Amino acid sequence: MAKKDDNFIMLPTVDVCFKGLMYNPKVRKGFIAALLKADPASVRETILLPTALRQEYPDEKLGILDVRTMMEDGAQINMEMQVESFKHWDARSLFYLSKMYTEQLNKGDSYEKLKKCIHVSILDFVRFAEDDTCYRTISLCDEQTGKRYTDLLELQILELKKLPKELQSDNEVIRWMRFLAGKTRKEFEEMAGTSEYIEEAYRELERMSADERARLEYEARQKAIRDHDAIMKSAWENGLESGMKQGLEQGLEQGMEQGLELGRQSIIQKMLDNGASPEEIMGLTGATQGEVEKAQNEAAREL
User: Taking all residues of the chain, what is their mean pLDDT, rounded to a whole number?
Assistant: First the structure.
């Protein structure tokens, strides 16, 4: 039997760990207060709402386990941890935000019922490489005057990879980001002393890490992500190599263009064979829905 690692601690950048932290009412209250730039005492109620995944854990490969909450005034906040960049990430974030906003109304409801919706993306990669800003808020504004058009829709983006090396900010969001980006028990302990809410997050992290069932779920999730990454990398390399070879065999002049096309088709097929969903394929390769459906139909005819 393997010896238990008593120093083991989960990392918040793994989505099941982040979701577990946000299930703690005090942790959730402290983090949301920071995002809203409010006194935690003013955040009286945060209700967890169900979130829809393409598949139920643990069968899904890379479905994002997000945390959706409703405030006392009806406003909604959706928080997600995302560790890898992918094509059309911006469009996907807008889709989630828009869907959360429109789902507030049922047939016959007045527009007056619409409340503010915030989509929070915590990224363990760099999205805006042109600057050093690690935390930004994006809203609808007039391009000419810069004046905000409405506060009903808002994106908050936290880029963990761009955190400054030294903690020299009294910004509560930055403190939370440093905690969420932690990789060692020492780093979590240091951040725990900065606020009672982050201290509670550290205590919750310790509790989850000591729970055998939670640890098994965490490790299974890590394995699923590693397996997914390996499959996607293999599909890309094998598909591109196969496509370029076939294309070049048809002549140098048309080789590059046809090789890329054949390579893309091969990549799509290999990703389907390895269990990737159409949404994942379109997001990672830029393929159209028609191309994916064509590959699915061709595979079905071969059966």
Answer: 82
